[in-house]
Amino acid sequence: MATKQLKQAEGPLVQFINRTVIPLLLILLVPQSVMYLWYASVHCQGSLTELADRLTNRGGPALVWAAVSVANPAVYAAILAFCAFQVLLMLLVPGRTCYGTETPTGHVPEYKDNGFACYLITMATFLAGTVYLKQRGLTPTVIYDYYGDFLASMILLSLAFCLLLCVKGVLAPTSTDHGRSGNYLFDYYWGTELYPRICGIDIKVFTNCRFGLTVWALAVAVFALKSYELHGRVVDGMAVTAALQLLYLTKFFWWEAGYYRTIDIITDRAGFYICWGCLCFVPSFYTLVSLFMVRQPEPVGPAWTAALLGFGLASLAVNYWSDWQKQAARAADGQLNIWGRPARVIRAKYSLDNGQERQSVLLASGFWAVSRHFHYIPELSLTLCWSAVCGTGCHIIPYMYFAFLSVLLFHRSFRDDKKCRDKYGKYWSEYCKLVPYKIVPLLF
Ligand SMILES: NC(=O)C1=CN([C@@H]2O[C@H](COP(=O)(O)OP(=O)(O)OC[C@H]3O[C@@H](n4cnc5c(N)ncnc54)[C@H](OP(=O)(O)O)[C@@H]3O)[C@@H](O)[C@H]2O)C=CC1
Ligand SMILES: CC(C)CCC[C@@H](C)[C@H]1CC[C@H]2C3=CC=C4C[C@@H](O)CC[C@]4(C)[C@H]3CC[C@]12C
């Protein structure tokens, strides 16, 4: 579906850039870069200058790869055990049945909404395991000590996994939403299937939620514990960043069924971008602030601690509230009050590929009347709060996630607008007239 849209809109040069040059660069460069960032955070006092110096004068990229092992059987065993645990939870933990967005081919994906329970069980198991290990003089922070090995091994496993998904999408697709683009590289990068399932396991729910975001939460907890072990105290900045990130992730899992209706799931196929991204990029790049803080603890002081925590919590609440307003409007078919008034909605009609007509509710009240992606502002301010605990010293690494997210959300606001315009046509134009700004009212 997305591939079809891309084909129609692009000239040959743009197509070559979008489908060959950019995917090739990302596949070649991103896995290397996340290893460099891990190395800089752990071995170069978090300094990119020091990293550049070492890469230039002490052996180039081989230096980083020499610091890790991709042949550590214990690491592979731990990764596979964690995957097996998450798969078992997905299969065994009960949850109500919920549905994703109907695709243009008329396929309605069905899910078991048990993400929050699986997340709580995982975190409780981690807590119990930590207590158990501590009583025996052991510690789970060995994961921090071998994090480079974990990342390097995951990079290899995930690259292979994406190849498998690509072939599966061609030879044994799960649903009607699949196909090739005619370009092998792009198929690998973008994927060949929208909703792949293997033995009843939804692959994108596994990679994005049950692996990527769960590992993010566990990494934040492990790095906070490591900081405590190294410095003998709870460093205020580390406590603030860990609390905000863990609350954010808890909020995510509470809302997981809402995520099944976003472009990651309804537009992006299961390929390198989304699957490798969630299996490796999230555990390496999204965790950078906490990783950085382990060795570079910055005392924040009580006033900043309170300010960052307070503003961060307020941002989290607003982000959740705006996601909730959209979901509530759809669930109530537009018959609800928002901010004390009957909600203003557009009843937008659209057609499936087979010509059948459907109708959806577009909310134009509450946060969804302020701008079309207002919820990205609190998402960014929250991120800034959990990064700013690293101080304003000359370090770039702790602010890289914020910078990346700003670009990602800016780009996403265009992608989502295009997706909605293609789907709803004149109804989307009507909504854009009512709510003219994409993200920041009066500015953009
Ligand atoms: N940390 C990170 O890396 C990122 C975090 N996020 C967060 O994830 C959450 C979800 O954001 P995102 O994935 O961008 O998706 P959105 O919540 O913006 O959902 C987009 C979809 O919602 C529907 N929609 C759009 N406008 C309206 C409206 N006015 N009323 C009702 N439905 C509408 C459309 O789908 P339909 O086809 O159903 O009409 C659209 O495709 C947010 O909290 C965001 O901040 C997002 C991106 C990256
Ligand atoms: C170059 C690539 C390797 C980049 C890969 C990017 C992806 C890993 C991320 C793109 C969009 C991200 C997400 C979207 C929405 C989310 C909801 C939020 O509440 C939690 C985070 C997330 C699931 C987030 C995760 C990473 C992406 C899929």
From TrEMBL:
Pathway: Steroid biosynthesis; cholesterol biosynthesis. InterPro entries: ERG24_DHCR-like (IPR001171), Sterol_reductase_CS (IPR018083). The chain crosses the membrane at residues 21-42, 62-93, 114-133, 153-171, 205-224, 270-294, 300-321, 384-410. Keywords: Cholesterol biosynthesis, Cholesterol metabolism, Endoplasmic reticulum, Lipid biosynthesis, Lipid metabolism, Membrane, NADP, Oxidoreductase, Steroid biosynthesis, Steroid metabolism, Sterol biosynthesis, Sterol metabolism, Transmembrane, Transmembrane helix. It comes from Macrostomum lignano. It catalyses: cholesterol + NADP(+) = 7-dehydrocholesterol + NADPH + H(+); 7-dehydrodesmosterol + NADPH + H(+) = desmosterol + NADP(+). It is a multi-pass membrane protein. PANTHER family: 7-DEHYDROCHOLESTEROL REDUCTASE, DELTA(14)-STEROL REDUCTASE. Its EC number is 1.3.1.21. This is 7-dehydrocholesterol reductase. One of its GO terms (cellular component) is endoplasmic reticulum membrane. Belongs to the ERG4/ERG24 family. GO terms for biological process: brassinosteroid biosynthetic process; cholesterol biosynthetic process. One of its GO terms (molecular function) is 7-dehydrocholesterol reductase activity. It is found in: Endoplasmic reticulum membrane.
